[in-house]
Amino acid sequence: MNLRDLTALQLAQKLQKREVGVVEVTADLLGAIKGAKNLNIAVTVCEKEALAQAEQVQKRLDAGEIHSPLAGVPMAVKDNICTRDINTTCGSKMLENFKPPYNATVMNKLCEADTILCAKMNMDEFAMGSTTETSYFGQVKNPWNTNHVPGGSSGGSAATVAARAAYFTLGSDTGGSIRQPASFCGVTGIKPTYGRVSRYGLIAYASSLDQIGPIARTAEDAAAVLDIISGYDRADSTSLNQPAGGFLAALKGDIKGLKVGIPREYFAQGLDEEVKASVLAAAKQLESMGAQVEEFSLPMTKYAIPTYYIIASAEASSNLSRYDGIKYGYRHEKPEDLIDLYLKSRSEGFGREVKRRIMLGAFALSSGYYDAYYKKALQAKALIKKAFDDAFEKYDIILSPTAPTAALKLGESLDDPLKMYLGDIYTVSVNLAGLPALVAPCGFTQSGLPIGVQLIGKPLEEAALLNTAHAYQQATDFHKKAPLSVEVMK
Amino acid sequence: MNYEVVIGLEVHVELATASKIFCGCTTAFGGAPNTHCCPVCTGMPGTLPVLNRKVVEFTIAAGLATDCNITRNCKFDRKNYFYPDLPKAYQVSQLYFPICRDGDVEIETDGVKKKVHIHEIHMEEDAGKLIHDPWEDTTLVDYNRCGVPLIEIVSDPDMRSANEVMAYLQALKARLEYLGVSDCKMQEGSMRADINLSVRPMGATELGTRTEMKNMNSFKAIGRAIEFEAKRQIELLEDSKKVTQQTRRWDDNKGVSMAMRSKENAQDYRYFPEPDLTPIYISQEWIDEILAAQPEMPKAKRARYISELGLPEYDTDIITGSKHLADLFEKTTVLTGQPKEVSNWIMGEMMKLLNENEKQPEDIDFSPENFAKLIQLVEKGTINRNTAKKVFAEVFLQNINPEQYVKDKGLQMISDEGAVRSTIEKVLADNPQSVSDFQAGKQKAFGFLVGQAMKELRGKADPAMINALIKELLQ
Q1: Which residues of A are the active-site residues?
Q2: How far is B43 from chain A (nearest CA, A)?
Q3: pLDDT for the residue A295
Q4: Do the bridges between strand A450-457 and strand B138-142 make them parallel or antiparallel, or are there none, so unpaired?
Q5: Residues of B at the A interface (Cβ-Cβ below 8 Å)?
Q6: What's the pTM?
Q7: Pick from A448, B106, B230, B415: CA 20 to 30 A from residue B220's CA?
Q8: What whole-number distance in Å separates Cα of residue A296 and Cα of residue A314?
Q9: Where would I find the beta strands (DSSP E) of B75-190?
Q10: Which of B270, B276, B277, B281 is the best mutation test for A, with the most CBs of A within 10 A?
Q11: Which residues, 6+ apart, have CB-to-CB distance to A143 below 8 Å?
Q12: Closest B-chain CA to A314
C-alpha cells in the first residue's frame, strides 16, 4: 500500500505504532509537493523547517511523550495564514517577501499538536477569486484535469489534498473559498461557524466573513483537524467563547431521523444538470440511510451575491489599505512624493482583481453612497441570516450544490468577473449568515471532474455536518478516488 | 457693527492607562523610537485588536463626570485615510455609537455661570509621529504613540469668548485630573484642543461659516489663536468678503494661522463599523461600580473646604480648580492641621513662583512633607516670615528639607535677647544722627534704626523684639 493513500488518521496510527517514521513520511510528502510542480500548488516549500520539526516529533514520539491524534502528520496551509519567519505572500506581489515575526493562532495550535508544516499553498491574490488564477505566483491546475481550474481561492490547498501531496491542509473561506475548491478537487472541506476558529494571523480579506477551516480526504480527518484548530482565542475578539473540540469523538455514522432540507432556489436555472443529478443522488443516499429529506423555499437567495460583494469589498478596501509601501511589502523605489509612493506601490503591487474589489468597496463606503450600498447590504445580511434561522426551525441540515458547475476551464472566467462572481451563488449566503458548511465529494461529471455536495448547519453544529458526511462516506467511495495524474506519478 | 464670536471645541485627551487601547504595549511617553510597539499596534497583516477594558472604564468615568448619558451598546468604527503615521491606514474610532452623549460642563467667567453642552465623547486610538530629518532630507516614522488610547470630547458651539474657552478647558482638565484618567499635559500633547470658530453679527440667530484650528499646545496659544481668528473673520466680513470653511494650522511663533485644507478638499473617511471588534455592552452594574469608585470631585470639595475648613470662596475655587493644588493642599493640611495657613502659602507665594517660573500646577514637584515642615518652622517661631518666604522658594524650586536647610544656612531666629540687645546698642552708637532725629520726634528715623538692626542681625530676629528693645534703649 502506498503511504500517500492513507488518511491523516490512518497515518498517525502507523506513526504511533512506529510502522513508519515521521521523517520518512515528511520527506516523502515534500517529494510529492515538489513532484507536483506542473500543478503549481505551492508558493513556498519549507523543507528544512519541516524535516527539523519531523525529527523533533519523532524523538518525542519515541520517548512516549505525545499522543495527539495527528502527531507527526505532514500538512500544508494556505499562504494567507501567518507563519513565523516563513514567507506569507497571500498570493500577491505586495507581500512577495513578507516574513511575519509571529504565528497565526492556528499555526501555534497545529504545532502544539505536533503536525508538520511542509508548505505554503498557492491561492487567489488576497483570497479574491474563485479559480486560483489571480495569484501573482501563477495559476494552480486541477489535478483531475490540468486544463481546468482547481477552484478558489484556496485552490492550492484543495489541489494539494487531491494530489495526495499533503494529508490535510488549511484553507480560508470568505464566500466559499474552502468549499468550492473542495468540490472542484473532489476533497472534503469545512467552513466552521464564524468565530469557531481564531482569525488571529489570518491575513484579512473581509473580517466579518473570513474563517479558517480544514481541507482533508475524509470527514473524519477534517473532524480531527477541527478539534485541533477550533476554540476561543483571546487575541481574536470575534472568536466565540464556546466549548469546542470533540468533533472526532462525536462521529457516530448514524443519521437516522436527521431532518434535511433542500432549498428549491438552489436548484433553479443555471445549475448544471450533471451537478444537479449528483447532488440530488446524495440526498437520496442520505434518505436511504434514515434521513428525512424535504424540499423547501429559502427566500432572499437572489440577494446573496450583491450583498456579499458589497460587504466583502467594503471591508477589503479598508483591510488592504495598510499595504501602502511604507512599512513592509512592495514599495515603488523612485516615487516623486508621498502620494506618488502610495499610487505606484499599490498600482504595481496589487493585481487586477484585488484593485477591482478595492475600488468597488471604497465606492460602496463613500459618503453619499454608504446608505444606499453598505447599509442596505448589512440589512440584507440580517434578512438572509433570518431566512436561515427560520429554515433551521424545521431542518437540522440544509443540503445543496456547492457551485453551479464542476471545475471551469483555465482562463474561462478570468476576463468575465461577473460570471465568476455569479458562481458563488450557493456559498456566499453561508458566510453572510455566519453558519458552518461542509463540502464532500458526491460524484463525477462524464468528463471525470469531481462534484461536491454542500451541507449547511446551524451555528456551532459542525458536529452534525461532520457526522452526516462521515456516515455518507461510510456508504460511498467518491472520496476515495484519486486523480489519474496521481496514479501516474506513483 | 458688533460681532459675536461662536466657539465649539474638540478636545483630545490621552488616557492614562498603563497599556495601549488594543494591545499590551506600554503607553509611556518618550522611549527610543519604535520600542513601544508590537505587530498589533503597527498594523501587521493578520493581527487583530483586543479592547483594553480600562479604556472603557476611564471613558465612562469621564462621561459621568460631565453629566453624559452612557451609550449602553456602543461600537467602534473605522475612519479610513492614508498617512504614514497611521500604519493600518485607518483609525479605529467611534462615529455611529459614541460611548458618551449629551453632557454638560458648568463654567464661570466674571461671576457669570453658564453650561457648555457636550455633544459626545468617543474613544479612539492615537497615531504615530513623523520625524523629518532636514539633513538627510528624509522622513522617519516612530510608532510608539500608535494605539495610545484617546478620548475626543466634542462640545456644542456654546462658547462666546477666549475666556469662556479657558474656563471650559480648565473645568474639563480638573475633572479628568481628579478622576486620574489623564494627566492632561498640553506640552506633551496629552491634551489637545481643536477650535471651531465662527462669527456673526450680534443678535443674529444663524451661525456663520466656521473654520477649524489645530496645533495649539498651550492655554496661552489657544487664547492667542482665538483672538487672531476672530479678528481675521470679522475683518473679512467688514470687507464684504466671505469666510471659507477650512482647516487652519496655528503657528504660535509667528502668531498667525494658515489654511491647511478647505472643505472641497476634505477627506472622505469612508467610516464603517469595525468588524474586528464586537459591540461593547455596558451594564448598569458596571456604571454603578465606576461611580462608586470615583474620587471626590471639585464641586464636592469646594463645598467641604468652605463649610468645614473655613476657606474663602475665592481661594477654594483656585485650589479645587486643579487636582494638583487640591492634593497638595489636603496632604499639607493633614500634616500641619492648619488649612488657612496652607491655603495662604499656596495662594500667595506659590502662585507668585508659578507665574515667575511660567509653570503650571501639574509641574509642582515638591513634597507636602517639606511644605508642612516650613509651615511648622514659622509656627514654632524658628524662622520669621521673611526668611520663610526665601526658604519656601527653595522648597518650590529644589524640594529642599526646610529643617535641614535652615540649620545648614544658620537661618534660625536669634532668640537670645542679650545678643539682640548688644547688636542694637552697637547700631544706636553707630547712628547718633538718627537717634537724635528720633528723639526730635521723627518717626522715620525709628524705621531706619529697626532696618539697620535687622540688617546687622541678618534678618534672623523677631521684628517685634527689635522694636521693643530699640524703644526701651532710647527711652
Answers
A1: 78, 153, 177
A2: 7
A3: 97
A4: unpaired
A5: 39, 42-51, 78, 80, 82, 84, 87-90, 141, 268, 270-272, 275-278
A6: 0.89
A7: B106
A8: 32
A9: 77-80, 90-93, 100-109, 112-125, 129-133, 138-142, 149-155
A10: B270
A11: A36, A39, A150, A159, A162, A163, A185, A483, A485, A486
A12: B272
- The C-alpha of A121 sits at a distance from chain B's nearest C-alpha, in angstroms, of 17
Count how many residues are written for chain B: 475
First-to-last alpha carbon distance for chain A, in angstroms, is 11
- Distance (Å) from the alpha carbon of B217 to chain A's nearest alpha carbon: 27
Q: Is A315 in Cβ contact with B46 (below 8 Å)?
A: no
Contact B45 A90 (CB under 8 A): yes
Cβ–Cβ of B272/A207 closer than 8 Å? no
CB contact under 8 A, A102 and B43: no
Q: Minimal Cα distance from B88: which residue of A?
A: A322
Q: Which residues from B are below 8 Å from A200, CB to CB?
A: 46-48
| Predicted-complex ipTM score | 0.95
User: Which residues of A lie inside 8 Å of B (Cβ-Cβ)?
Assistant: 80-82, 88, 90, 95, 98, 100-102, 104, 199-204, 206-208, 234-238, 314-315, 317-318, 321-322, 324, 326-328, 338, 342, 362, 365-367, 370, 374
B51: which chain A residues are within 8 Å (Cβ-Cβ)? 237
**Own/partner pairs for A382-389, CB < 8 Å, 24+ apart?**
A383/A300, A383/A303, A384/A300, A384/A303, A384/A304, A384/A307, A384/A429, A384/A432, A384/A433, A385/A432, A385/A433, A385/A434, A387/A298, A387/A299, A387/A300, A388/A298, A388/A429, A388/A433, A388/A435, A388/A456
Residue B96, pLDDT > 80, answer yes
Could A102 and B276 be called an inter-chain contact, meaning their C-beta atoms sit closer than 8 Å?
A: no
Domain parsing of chain B, residue ranges: 3-286, 296-409, 417-474
* Per-residue pLDDT at B359: 87
3-state secondary structure of B356: helix
Of B197, B183, B142, nearest in space to B324 by CA: B183
Q: Is-contact A212 A170, C-beta < 8 A?
A: yes
Contacts of B45 in chain A (CB under 8 A): 82, 88, 90, 95, 98, 100, 203-204, 322, 328
DSSP codes, A63-130: TT----TTTT-EEEEETTB-BTTB---TTSGGGTT---SS--HHHHHHHHTT-EEEEEE--SGGG--S
Given 3.90.1300.10, 3.40.50.2300, 3.40.190.10, 1.10.290.10, which CATH number is that of A3-260+394-489?
A: 3.90.1300.10
CATH architecture, domain B417-474: Orthogonal Bundle (1.10)
Torsion from C-alpha of A314, A319, A324, A325, nearest 10 degrees:
-140
pLDDT tens track, chain A, 490 positions: 689 999 999 999 999 999 999 999 999 999 999 999 999 999 999 999 999 999 999 999 999 998 889 999 999 999 999 999 999 999 999 999 999 999 999 999 999 999 999 999 999 999 999 999 999 999 999 999 999 999 999 999 999 999 999 999 999 999 999 999 999 999 999 999 999 999 999 999 999 999 999 999 999 999 999 999 999 999 999 999 999 889 999 999 999 999 999 999 999 888 999 999 999 999 999 999 999 999 999 989 999 999 999 999 999 999 999 999 999 999 999 999 999 999 999 999 999 999 999 999 999 999 989 999 999 999 999 999 999 999 999 999 999 999 999 999 999 887 788 888 888 999 999 999 999 999 999 999 999 999 999 999 999 999 999 999 999 999 999 999 999 766 555 4
pLDDT of residue B420: 83
Looking at residue A422, what is its pLDDT? 85
More confident residue, A263 or B472: A263
Which bin fits B214, alpha (ψ -120 to 50), beta or left (φ > 0)? beta
